[in-house]
Amino acid sequence: HYSNLIYAYLLSFSISEEDAIRLLPLSDEYAVKPLTKACGFTITQTYYKQRKGRRPGNINSDITVRNLVIADKYEFKDLQEMCIEELVKSDNPYSGKLVSENKELSEFMKRQVLERKLEKLNMALVRERRMRTEEARQKAAKATKSGRNEISLRR
Question: Could you tell me which residues come within 8 angstroms of residue 21 by beta carbon, excluding any fewer than 6 positions away?
Answer without folding.
Answer: 39, 43, 70
